[in-house]
Amino acid sequence: MLLAVLAACEPDKTCRQDVDVAAEIVLKGTVIDTAGTATAFTSWDSITVQGVGNDSVLYNNAKSVSKLLVPLKIDTNVTAYSLTWHGQTDVVYFRHDNTRRFVSMACGCVIYHSIEEVWCNGVWIDSVKIVNNAVEAVEQENVQVYVTIVEEPSTEEEENGEESEE
User: Are 77 and 118 contacting, i.e. CB atoms less than 8 angstroms apart?
Assistant: First the structure.
């Protein structure tokens, strides 16, 4: 009995808490067809995401992507990622504060972030929006990226349109 009590008081050497933290970017797109009808899409193909200033590629020509999980830097207050889609590259920037929190002896400290501002170059991304500035877990939406694609009429449609106007 005494042995069971002593064993229960031994410090836990196993970290049982998830200590991974990443900002979640949700991709939101709209296609406007030639008739002016808008259709939302949430599944993206052929997207590549790479950290700016390093060789780390997080997503390489990824298929069926609706969200991106990106870690924020712990040693600086600005993190940037290049997003390449259909041959065009845009850069999304995060300005954030970093807070170190002690979890336990087994887990150590975790760096949480508070996103203060997010912006992009605007090459193919229309806008970005913070929906939750607290980055304290994985699988928690933090930022939304908006893209609008306007379909151009085909040459055949243009020719038919010109014929009907005459």
Answer: no
Q: Please, what sign has the CA dihedral across residues 123, 124, 125, 126?
A: positive
Nearest to 70 by CA among 136, 129, 21: 21
The pTM score is 0.80
DSSP string, 86-110: TTEEEEEEEEEEEEEEEEETTTEEE
Least Cα distance to 130 among 8, 29, 26 occurs for 26
Tens digits of residue pLDDT in 141-166: 999 999 999 998 876 655 555 444 44
What residue type is assigned to position 61 of the chain?
N
d(CA 95, CA 80): 9
Q: Which domains does the chain have, with CATH numbers?
A: 20-153 (2.60.40)
